[in-house]
Automatic annotation (TrEMBL):
InterPro entries: FecR (IPR006860). Residues 85-187 form the FecR protein domain. It holds the Pfam family FecR. This is FecR protein domain-containing protein. It comes from the Bacteria.
């Protein structure tokens, strides 16, 4: 009898052990894919003690980081220190960012987004900061780096601008084209496997899908020429405004930014009947502004 009881007990122990394994395996599948993704990001993230810090906020600015998917208002002291962390500004708003180790300052203009692409450490322990400006305007003031391997690169849909110590402005237009103006030092613009150096006092244009243009002297001229076309057809009357300015300028018609072609031309179709006048704001990369009140009717 004793031997029979032992024979029955052994299978019971084995069954309990197997059931325990099954419970552990099935329990692991209860973790959501979102939680798994977050845990994976936490596991592979490498801290390099590099960041951008919010020093000043004017108007409406939004902060978003890796661990906070819901946007919230940006606050002084916020840090962008992980890939995809970003700051976005609204109309008539701006943000001032400081770069780690005090190497410089980034002035983020209205209707602009700046995002962390990556942080890296060079072979000589220099810091490499890669930023993305998918829209808007940013002005950078960066001192000369101590380490030769240090870099600060600004990527736009059209290309990349790399600096080692300078003052410059980068603008991403609605069509993705990039305008670069160098105030001091030198900036290298790269696109389509071609690099063009832009020295102080010069600027250039990089069109999406094309190499950078040659550098030309900065023209801080917000002047505007325009023509109003009025046409009547079977559906009524149509009105269009065709304007011309320096191709490096930024143009807004009633607050909406326009895309300029290589000659500095833009065209706006206006509803008819339209208001008695429209407002055209022309701003140079250096910040000189001229506002035009143009009568339509």
């Amino acid at each position: 009898m004793f031997q029979k009881r032992e024979m029955y007990r052994i299978p019971n122990l084995i069954l309990i052990t197997v059931l325990g394994i099954l419970i552990d395996i099935s329990g692991s599948t209860l973790v959501s894919q979102k939680d798994q993704r977050v845990e994976a990001q936490r596991g592979i993230q490498v801290r390099t003690d590099q960041w951008l810090k919010v020093e000043q906020v004017t108007g409406n600015a939004t902060y978003r980081n890796l661990y906070n998917y819901a946007n919230r208002p940006a606050r002084i002291g916020d840090r962008l220190q992980s890939v995809s962390d970003e700051i976005s500004t609204g109309a008539n708003s701006s943000v001032v960012l400081s770069v780690d180790t005090g190497i410089g300052t980034i002035y983020v203009a209205e209707n602009t987004t700046i995002k962390i692409n990556s942080f890296r450490i060079a072979a000589d322990n220099g810091r490499i900061t890669n930023l993305l400006v998918p829209r808007g305007k940013a002005r950078l003031q960066i001192r000369k780096f101590t380490n030769r391997g240090s870099q600060l690169n600004i990527q736009t849909p059209a290309g990349i601008s790399g600096v080692r110590g300078t003052k410059f402005t980068v603008i991403t237009r609605p069509n993705g084209n990039m305008v670069l103006s160098t105030l001091e030092g030198k900036v290298a613009t790269t696109a389509q496997n071609r690099t063009v150096m832009v020295p102080g006092g010069f600027q250039n244009l990089t069109v999406v899908g094309e190499p950078p243009s040659i550098a030309v002297p900065i023209s801080n001229d917000p002047s505007l020429r325009y023509v109003i076309n009025r046409q009547a057809n079977g559906n009524g009357r149509s009105i269009s405004l065709v304007g011309y300015t320096n191709l490096f300028n930024t143009v807004k018609v009633d607050g909406i930014e326009q895309s300029l072609d290589r000659s500095g031309k833009f065209s706006v179709q206006l509803p008819a009947p339209s208001s008695l006048k429209i407002q055209v704001k022309v701003e140079t990369p250096q910040g000189r502004v001229q506002v035009y009140e143009i009568p339509i009717l």
